Amino acid sequence: MFIYILKRLFFMIISLLVIVTATFGLMRAAPGGPFTGEKELPPAIQANLNAFYGLDQPWYKQYFDYLVSIAQWDFGPSFTYKGQTVNDLINNGFPVSFYLGMEAILVAVAVGILLGTIAALKHNEWQDYGAMIIAVLGISVPSFIIASVFQYFLAMKLGLFPVARWDSFMHSVLPALALATTPMAFIARLTRSSMLEVLSNDYIRTAKSKGLSKNVIILRHTIRNALLPVVSYMGPLISAILTGSFIIEKIFGIPGLGMHFVTSITNRDYTTIMGVTVFFSILLLVSILLVDIAYGLIDPRIQIAGKKGD
Amino acid sequence: MSKQHINIDDIPIESLELVDVRADDAEKITRPSLSFWKDVWMRFRKNKLALSGVVLLILLLFMAIFGPMMTPYNYYENNLEAVNEAPSAEHWFGTDNLGRDLFTRVWEGARISLFIGFSAAVIDLFIGVIWGGIAGFRGGRLDEIMMRAADILWAVPYLLLVILLMVVLEPGLTTMIIAMTITGWINMARIVRGQVLQLKNQEFVLASQTLGAKTNRIMNKHLIPNTMGPILITMTLTIPNAIFTEAFLSYLGLGVPAPLASWGTMASEGLPAMRYFPWRLFFPATFISLTIFAFNVIGDGLRDALDPKLRK
């Protein structure tokens, strides 16, 4: 197990290096320097600015400095938010996004598993078709459309929820639902197909012939085993929630990191884009690693490290 | 026992009847022989949902080709006297804020969105089959290196990389397709490699090798055709993903540049106007969803039809 984690960490760091290098390369390739504005700057000021941000150094020095600063958890200044660093943006925005994301993950997992289980238990009955229609719709309709529809009908027409902003729990309901729809649909489909597979196993028949009650069979013998594929979907789930948050936060005007990211894209604020991208990548890679480790711990059939050190 | 014993010679020869038995009858196949793909088609045909997906897709393709020709308008010309008009006999899907006919624009958008989807799938296919095929067939050290490289690239978050590329590179169709395929091929490569690994040790490959077939021939004649099923499924699921990504990028303002119309750009332009001119969002959003739906059910149907476990 320990060797496996070390190995994974090693490859994770290489992947991160690829990302950092790509962002660095792209930042340099981006058209226009950070200080090419409408006003022509006097050459002395230009030189001073370049010196301040280390832009007068040769590229390999800059690259190395960039690596060091990221290793020190410093994502650099923002070019358009004056006086703010990317770290400030992350510190302000991430807690909001985290709260919203967690709520969405909870909804997606709970509702998804419920729908999938119902569909599998009532295989080829109307409940099954109903659940699968919801699932196919959830997969087919892009999240920004779902979000706008929710906003239009539930908030504007019916007035059940606030339309936008971020003040109370009620403000978080619609965005979390919109964010959860697509992953929820995936989880429902996954749960259904793996439940169906598990239900056709011999040990379920054994359990039935032992005279166990239906509830015990479902809870003890079926769902537990059927949920393994769902656990392995947690990695993609986190990345779906994260990228989904860009759009949802913008639509609902939530001051999270996703909205800052979208704003920085619109403003062509290169350093923020790069910094937040690196931050998101670290976040994703670490959470996927954690999910994989958890999966290994849960599933008795997987032995992560062979005794011979894999 | 012995009492009941009947001597064969005692049976009168007239009571016996000659049955016409031929030696090769035992080998006769009573059911019509089916090729693999016929069999797949038979099972696919029974899946009503998947079949409706095919019909829907054919309709969408037809409209993408002929739709823009059905109206006297084009997708880029502004008409400021007919701004934000509701659907009518004149403008079947209404007009947008620049007075452009939405019916024409929706089908122009279908061309672009479908083009993005299909190109991404074809490029993924091309790179993925070569990369995965070589890695799987050669195996050993080369396989290890190739797949490790793919793993490292795979760990890079897909949408973030696409966004990054779209921000820095010049916006346009080509950029978008490049951005999508830069890590998109890895999925295909992994699937092809897995299949080739499984197949290459089977007897028919050995037989072919014994007959002196070259690597190329084994690859093209034996291995790749046998992986067609999983490849096809992966492709049908890549296309909706690409269309989805296109819509997502358009919403972030990284879509195809104006006046080109893709479904994504049209929907994101229609969003702020949703309250007053809902048709501007409704039509592009509906067709994005229908297309993704069609590809998804076709992909699901193919997966079921190709699964030998479901064979009867």
Written account of the structure:
The complex is a heterodimer of chains A (310) and B (312). By secondary structure, chain A is mostly helical. Chain A has a domain at 95-255: Orthogonal Bundle (MetI-like fold), CATH 1.10.3720. Chain A is built from 13 helices and no strands. Chain A has helices at residues 2-29, 43-52, 59-71, 86-121, 126-140, 143-157, 169-199, 202-209, 214-226, 228-232, 234-252, 257-266, 270-298. Chain A is flat. The model of chain B has no long low-confidence stretch (mean pLDDT 80). Chain B has one domain (43-76, 83-310): MetI-like (MetI-like fold), CATH 1.10.3720.10. In chain B, helix 2 (48-66) crosses helix 3, helix 5 (158-168) runs antiparallel to helix 6 (173-199) and helix 10 (263-270) packs across helix 11. Chain B has helices at residues 36-46, 48-66, 102-138, 140-155, 158-168, 173-199, 203-210, 215-226, 228-251, 263-270, 279-306. Chain B is built from 11 helices and no strands. Chain A binds chain B through residues 11-12, 14-15, 18-19, 22-23, 26-27, 29-31, 136-137, 139-142, 144-145, 148, 152, 156, 239, 243, 246-247, 251, 262, 265-266, 268, 270, 273-274, 277, 280-281, 284-285, 288, and chain B through 148, 151-153, 155-161, 163-165, 167-168, 240, 244, 247-248, 251-254, 267-268, 271, 274-275, 281, 285, 288-290, 292-293, 296-297.
